[in-house]
Design a protein that fits this description.
The complex is a heterodimer of chains A (about 375) and B (about 140).
Chain A (H helix, E strand, L loop, with lengths): L2 H7 L5 E5 L11 E7 L2 E8 L7 H5 L8 H5 L6 H16 L5 H29 L5 H21 L8 E2 L2 E2 L7 H24 L2 H7 L7 H6 L5 H5 L6 H4 L20 H24 L19 E9 L2 E9 L7 E5 L1 H7 L1 H5 L4 H11 L3 H5 L1
Antiparallel strand pairs in A: 1-2, 2-3, 4-5, 6-7, 7-8
Chain B lengths: L2 H11 L4 E2 L6 E2 L5 H10 L4 E9 L4 E9 L4 E9 L5 E3 L8 H12 L2 E3 L22
Parallel strand pairs in B: 2-5, 6-7
Antiparallel strand pairs in B: 1-2, 3-4, 4-5
Helix pairs in contact in B: 1-2
Classes of the chains: A alpha+beta (about 375), B alpha/beta (about 140).
Chain lengths: ~375, ~140
């Protein structure tokens, strides 16, 4: 028997396999339908919607203030940042300027929230690649410091509901600035430890370098934002390019990648955490006196009109499009979530890869289903 | 490039275009959406950042948010559809992000995007017959 006939006899058939919605590497309830040839992914379809809670419909039945806790449940790993993005949109709609102290507190909270979110993102990504438990526990240990601070500040560990339209719900508790400085001092060397742990690991490098390359033009065309976009070499960060709050007062760099592979997406997040620490440090040192809370009533009627405000969340640009008809509840609210656009690019990235690498690419995109399905 | 400049360019191609006074949004008739899209891609608007709809009861307004990172500019484009004929051309051929965004608008509002490669519900179950964000 010659070789060609043998090959034909044992040829594999392409078949569809469901990955998820209960698969541990899908970070929640995401279903991937993968067309496989042996272990190679020929095509993939992303199915979302398992966590759809009709947030946008709920928004049409709540006052502006009542909707703040719902934003906590969008990207539940970065609730502080969601709160902020939402109140910024409502403030833009109403033309409100907040006090300097409120701005500084918001910046500190947003940047610490970004660190907490990236710690979770990076360490669960590494866990997906088989580094079971150890890196995740290290990441959670550092994140715990931030969560404890948030607990002190607003009484919650996950869904903070801290920002208010016009300020924040309460001032920092006594001694909080010292605690924040302590956290910054504690975290800085820990990032070096974490990075040394990953960078020196030959398996991690081999699994991520050159895997799932996202080109800059494709990233822009798909509407990919945040660290995933910057990893593809596009230097775009709303904190620098369309500054809101008081980000223009701080010095910080925008880390970018060169290749747009899984490694760059990890590395950009790692570097961003250091920059967030820099911003938080400047903000806590320059924290002005004053009253950051809101004295006005909780129910207000914005003028009829509309606004679109986007801000830089840990996972990309979170935008709120709000239409007001002059009543105390929004006429229409659209939530443009970063993960929604980031995950849409997945089928393009995993074509031709092995299943294990598809898991790697998905982990490196760092999506949260809460804000995809809304 | 501001909304005003882009408005001038689009108005040359589609005479029925108007500029919304309060929001500075460009309003094109729905037949002109492809022409407007071609015009915007030519001007370097490489990102369709957001696409959504608003049900104003007497019409359903589609709202497109475009950005150009090179020009550091953003543009809001709108087009109005009558409730008894919710169809419009898909802009997926220009911006891949439109694929999912248009599916979402179809799912929630029932707007049919012509020549869309895969117009299926995205958040709600496929067997549903209603479009939950419609107000009537």
């Amino acid at each position: 028997m010659d070789d060609t006939s043998l090959k034909e006899d044992i040829g594999t058939e392409e078949f569809w396999v469901n990955m998820g919605p209960q698969h541990p590497s899908t970070h929640g309830v995401l279903r991937l339908e993968l067309k496989l040839s042996g272990e190679t992914v020929v095509d993939g379809i992303v199915h979302i919607g398992y966590l759809h809670r009709s947030m946008e419909k709920i928004a049409e039945n709540r006052t502006y203030t009542q909707f703040i806790p719902f934003t906590d449940r969008l990207d539940y790993l970065a609730s502080m940042n969601n709160n902020l993005a939402y109140v910024l949109a409502v403030e833009k709609l109403m033309g409100i300027e907040v006090s300097d102290r409120a701005k500084y507190i918001r910046v500190i909270m947003a940047e610490l929230g970004r660190i907490a979110s990236h710690l979770f993102g990076i360490t669960t990504f590494v866990q997906d690649l088989g580094a079971f438990a150890t890196p995740l526990f290290y990441g959670m240990r550092e994140r715990e410091k931030i969560v404890e601070l948030f607990d002190d500040v607003c009484g919650q560990r996950l869904t903070y509901n801290y920002m208010r339209v016009g300020g924040v719900s309460r001032d920092l508790p006594n001694g909080a600035d010292g605690k924040i400085k302590g956290i910054i001092k504690y975290l800085r060397p820990k990032f070096d430890d974490l990075e040394a742990l990953f960078n020196s690991n030959p398996i991690f490098t081999a699994r991520t370098r050159g895997v799932g390359v996202l080109t800059a033009s494709k990233a822009v065309n798909y509407g990919v934002t945040g660290p995933n976009l910057r990893a593809s070499g596009v230097k775009w960060d709303l904190r620098k390019d369309e500054p809101y709050l008081c980000y223009d007062k701080f010095t910080f760099d925008i880390p970018v990648g060169n290749n747009g592979d899984a490694w760059d997406r990890y590395k950009v997040r790692m570097d961003e955490m250091r920059q967030s620490l820099r911003i938080a440090e400047q903000a806590v040192l320059g924290l002005p006196e004053g009253d950051p809370t809101v004295k006005a009533g909780r129910i207000f009627r914005p003028e009829p009109g509309e606004t679109y405000m986007r801000s830089e969340n840990p996972r990309g640009e979170l935008g709120f499009y709000i239409v007001s008809d002059g009543s105390p509840i929004p006429f229409r609210m659209k939530i443009r979530s970063p993960s929604f656009s980031n995950i849409a690019v997945l089928p393009d990235l995993i074509r031709g890869l092995k299943i294990a690498d598809a898991v790697c690419v998905l982990g490196s995109l760092d999506v949260v289903m809460g804000e995809i399905d809304r | 490039m501001s909304n005003g400049e882009a408005f001038g360019l689009i108005k040359l191609k589609i005479p029925d275009t108007s500029l919304e006074e309060k929001t500075r949004a460009i309003v094109v008739p729905r037949e002109g959406i492809l022409e407007a899209a071609r015009c915007l891609t030519g001007q370097g608007f490489d990102s369709l950042h957001n696409l959504t709809a608003v049900d104003n009861k007497d019409n359903v307004t589609l709202v497109y948010h475009f950005y150009s990172m090179k020009k550091r500019a953003g543009i809001v484009l709108k087009t109005q559809l009558l409730p008894d004929d919710l169809t419009v051309e898909s802009v997926e051929r220009f911006w891949r992000s439109a694929d999912w965004l248009e599916r979402e608008v179809y799912d929630l509002f029932g707007v049919k995007f012509l020549n869309h490669p895969n117009l299926k519900r995205i958040l709600n179950p496929e067997e549903w017959t209603i479009h939950p964000l419609r107000k009537t």
